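Q: I'm building a small set of examples for a reading group on sequence design. Run inverse folding on the following structure and report the sequence directly after it, with nothing in between.
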């Protein structure tokens, strides 16, 4: 409440500088928004000089103070306070304000020195050009202005590097991140910078350089586990599956032993630190700590994709154990797929490993959990029915589409459960039970799919509908093969004909259709179909418009099951038949 007095202002501003730094250190974060304490300090300076600035914004206030206050003893405290203001603005990503402030500070010192050379980064040049005011023994500081300048340089380079990385300007990002790596920061921040350098190099198509940066991050701070996660991703890109799986295994073990926690600074004596100034969504994304269960699932998935069935089974069963022990996050915070899909992938792995009964058990769990979630009638055509509601049309339409999308997912999971059970029973030699399961799949999703095929489907639902159509195709082919095993060739023929209606030109359905006709002694028709199929180009077989999306992993084994195994013997038989028919034809 005392009036401002010029002789006391150097002490007053130094106390303000120290107290703001103590506030930052105690809260371990930079307070969002402008520091009100700095504003009050500047107004006190103007008051002592007989001026006012209550109606000015912070940038205008700084400009007025630095232009009007010429007292030599006030310059050092004001410059230190200016550096602290720059830290606040940097944390708020107000880079233009930071550059403008340091230009004012440098101009106040030497009007001819506030210049940025061509090709140099403006903000970094401005900060580096700023001369740190000398410290006075009578006014001790809790953190020197020299340290604060170094931190501002590092943080400015790091923050701008992240912005360029997010914008896709990778060469500029690389240069700025390298500048930050040579700056003043703690070990955990240096490891984060090297991790970002690795991600940048990977985006530039330089995987080996990316690995060098990521390994450097781990050398600096082995607790920087996101770097290990990115190492696995780079090795996957390089196709080095063995090393990728080793990295994922190491990551899983490290996460199990040391769950992610807030990294402590290796420089506790610094109240203002780089990590308090650089916090952006892109950095959060790049440094996201995976949950152990997420890494375990990724191990299972990659083993299954690479054909390492025994390892895949082990990892999937470990994941299901974690799920049973409630050690799997189900709040959407991880990148895990939907749990029914994981169960179906586990069933696929078990089936490929020859554990058919276990696969059947897992599929039964999926079917039982999803059945009650599927409505009796599900319309997926493009036109939404008009409903009396006070909700806006767009919100109503979005809610209905979301509900239908979820219902279609449940329908696909249940249908896939029946499909996988059918193939498991077929492998056990139980053709009748296999036919029953394939038929249940058709009863499960057939009605909905008829609607899908006859009416235009809403675009947002197209991926789910395509998966359902593929499941139905695989079930029809699967049931047809079991009818052939049972000698029910006419029923098999009908299924293969229906399959070709769903996916005209599908090579497996066409081959089985030819075989069914051959078994029914309709050899002329079989030969004609075989010739038609043989003459079609590979790109035409089974490729429908809009069906280029990758199918779920849990269907991969089913796709392998329907591959026709008797192509060469059947082709020879038909060629012999056509040759004999040609000889019998009178010339």
């Amino acid at each position: 409440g005392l009036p401002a007095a010029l002789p006391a202002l150097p002490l007053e501003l130094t106390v303000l500088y120290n107290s703001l730094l103590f506030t930052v250190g105690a809260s371990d974060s930079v307070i969002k928004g402008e520091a009100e304490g700095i504003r009050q300090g500047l107004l006190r300076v103007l008051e002592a000089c007989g001026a006012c600035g209550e109606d000015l914004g912070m940038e205008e206030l700084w400009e007025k103070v630095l232009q009007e206050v010429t007292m030599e003893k006030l310059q050092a405290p004001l410059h230190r306070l200016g550096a602290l203001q720059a830290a606040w603005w940097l944390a708020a990503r107000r880079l233009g304000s930071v550059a403008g402030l340091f230009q004012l500070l440098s101009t106040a010192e030497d009007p001819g020195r506030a210049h940025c050379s061509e090709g140099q980064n403006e903000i970094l040049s401005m900060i580096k050009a700023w001369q740190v005011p000398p410290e006075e023994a009578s006014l001790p500081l809790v953190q020197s202005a020299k340290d604060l300048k170094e931190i501002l340089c590092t943080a400015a380079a790091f923050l701008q590097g992240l912005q360029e990385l997010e914008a896709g300007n990778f060469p500029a990002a690389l240069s700025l991140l390298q500048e930050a790596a040579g700056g003043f920061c703690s070990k955990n921040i240096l490891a984060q910078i090297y991790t970002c350098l690795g991600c940048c190099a990977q985006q530039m198509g330089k995987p080996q350089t990316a690995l060098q940066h990521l390994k450097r991050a781990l050398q600096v701070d082995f607790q920087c586990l996101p770097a290990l996660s990115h190492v696995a991703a780079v090795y996957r890109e390089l196709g080095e599956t063995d090393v990728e799986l080793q990295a994922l295994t190491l990551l899983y073990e490290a996460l199990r032993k040391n769950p992610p926690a807030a990294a402590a600074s290796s420089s506790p004596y610094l109240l203002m630190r780089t990590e308090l100034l650089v916090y952006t969504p892109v950095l959060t994304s790049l440094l996201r700590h995976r949950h152990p269960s997420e890494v375990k699932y990724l191990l299972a998935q990659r083993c299954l994709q690479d054909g390492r069935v025994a390892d895949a089974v082990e990892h999937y069963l470990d994941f299901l154990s974690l799920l049973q022990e409630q050690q799997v996050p189900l709040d959407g915070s991880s990148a895990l797929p939907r749990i029914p899909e994981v169960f179906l992938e586990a069933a696929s792995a078990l089936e490929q490993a020859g554990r058919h009964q276990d696969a059947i058990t897992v599929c039964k769990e999926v079917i039982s959990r999803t059945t009650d979630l599927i409505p009796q009638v599900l319309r997926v055509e493009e036109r939404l029915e008009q409903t009396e509601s006070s909700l806006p049309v767009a919100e109503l339409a979005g809610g209905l589409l979301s509900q239908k999308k979820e219902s279609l997912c449940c329908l696909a999971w249940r249908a896939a459960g029946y499909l996988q059970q059918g193939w498991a029973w077929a492998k056990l030699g139980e053709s009748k039970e296999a036919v029953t399961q394939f038929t249940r799949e058709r009863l499960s999703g057939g009605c909905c799919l008829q609607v899908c095929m006859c009416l235009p489907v809403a675009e947002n639902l197209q991926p789910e509908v395509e998966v359902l159509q593929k499941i139905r195709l695989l079930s029809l082919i699967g049931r047809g093969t079991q009818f052939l095993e049972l000698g029910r060739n006419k029923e098999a023929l009908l299924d293969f004909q229906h399959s070709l209606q769903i996916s005209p030109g599908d090579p497996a359905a066409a081959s089985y259709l030819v075989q069914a006709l051959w078994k029914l002694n309709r050899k002329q028709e079989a030969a004609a179909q075989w010739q038609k199929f043989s003459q079609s180009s590979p790109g035409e077989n089974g490729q429908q418009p809009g069906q280029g999306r990758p199918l779920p992993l849990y269907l991969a084994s089913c796709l392998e099951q329907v591959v026709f195994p008797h192509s060469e013997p059947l082709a020879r038989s038909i060629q012999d038949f056509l040759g004999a028919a040609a000889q019998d034809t009178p010339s």
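Residues 384-391, 449-453, 539-547 have pLDDT under 50 and may be disordered.
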